Amino acid sequence: MRVTARRLVAVDVRENPTQTREVATETVLESAVATTDEGAEEEGRNGGLQGFLSSLFSTLGGVFSSTFQETQQNNVVMASIAEQPNKGEIRENKQKNMGGEGRNRRVLQDIGNLVAKQGHVGINVSKPVARNFRAQLLANAQDKNKKSSTEVENAAVVAKVKAAEKPKEEPEVIVISSDDETEEKKKQYVPKTNKARDKNAKAFSSVLSARSKVVPLEPVLNIDATDTDNELAAADYIDDIYEFYKSTEKDGCVHDYMGSQPDINAKMRSILVDWLIEVHRKFELMPETLYLTLNIVDRFLSMKAVPRRELQLVGISSMLLASKYEEIWAPEVNDFVCISDNAYVSEQVLLMEKTILRKLEWYLTVPTPYVFLVRYIKASTPSDKETEYMVFFLAELAMMHYPTVVLHCPSLIAASAVLVARCTLQRTPFWTSTLKHYTGYSEEQLRDCAKILVNLHATAPESKLRAVYKKYSSSDCSSVALRLPAKNLTELS
């Protein structure tokens, strides 16, 4: 009975798995009933219940084993069908399988096993399919997705490579174009500038060579090098002292004051100056005393109107003040009264002295032409006594000439006197780099004042005011007044 049931189960499993399970169940139940009857009929074995249980489990094991073998066979068949290229056969097998399954169980619904991938619209997933075939379709779809993803990745890599190559190509294009433009600019512009520079270089070198032949370049000499051990020369402070003189010389300059003098004119002033030069020489006073005297006279006359009869009194009172300021042994008041032929008394001289000091506010420390003359004569190397006398001769002529005193400052008058003296004595070059450095004037700046001094020198022998001319015509002053004036103004150029 048991053997027959097992054989039936084996045959039915091959034909239809669902029907086989039902038949097997019925067979097992029948066999179980039969076994129970036989057990009851037989001698009442004690192990009847145990036999029933063993036969039941063995029957169930055979059913499940046959079902597992059928599943494996179906997998092999479906794999072979998937490898075949004929789509018609695949559809027929699908219909057969679906038809067989439809008779015994419900159609599978959507349980999450439907494949719906983007880009694969051609796959029909609306119908239920077998597990193995569905797995095959899913594998194919994944392969296609992998291919498409690899293609996308390859396209992205290619795009990245192109994007990485573009910056390399673009700078090359830009550099090439810029090089072309710069080369064109260089072709158009650089040769012109080089030619212009060559021309300028030739012209400048020719000018330098021409000038070097005419006037060689001279270094600036240190005129205070020999006075380093002389404490009275104040070599350490001399440059600062003269810089201060140049900055304050305008305080001692006078403006044209003849318009404010009703009884005095420029000619009367010249007569007074000529007489004061004679008095200065007679008293044998210092040169700086004479220049300070004339400065005091001009500044006082520019501040107060003076009658004609008091003009000489202003002169002797001014010289008295200058002598007290500059001299070690100043002349007495009676000496000035006597030199004026007793035209005034001592009280008048002292009263005028007080009046002048009040008007000038006791301001007597002013840079006169003399302080600049001393410095510029020292800078006129080589310096000698003849040059020194010639410079003082021209400077005193300038002090007698009212327009020169009014128009030009003391430092310019002194520098012009040095220039004209060098021209008159033929000291070449007429104006050196050393003189330009210490005076602060160029030859062109001194031209106008120098012409005036040359004219004064030329007219001095015929002038009625001959005090200066006589003074410097003597042998004590090297007779510099007798030298021919530098009429040729081209020598000053």
TrEMBL record:
Physiological role: Essential for the control of the cell cycle at the G2/M (mitosis) transition.
Protein name: B-like cyclin
SUPFAM superfamilies xref list: Cyclin-like
Nuclease found in the keyword field: no
A single BP term in Gene Ontology: mitotic cell cycle phase transition
Source organism of this protein record: Vigna mungo
Record's subunit section: Interacts with the CDC2 protein kinase to form a serine/threonine kinase holoenzyme complex also known as maturation promoting factor (MPF). The cyclin subunit imparts substrate specificity to the complex.
Pfam families (UniProt xref): Cyclin_C (PF02984), Cyclin_N (PF00134)
Keywords: Cell cycle, Cell division, Cyclin, Mitosis
Domain Cyclin-like, chain residue ranges per copy: 274-358, 371-455
Domain Cyclin C-terminal positions: 367-486
Sequence similarity: Belongs to the cyclin family. Cyclin AB subfamily.
Molecular function per GO: cyclin-dependent protein serine/threonine kinase regulator activity
PROSITE patterns given in the database record: CYCLINS
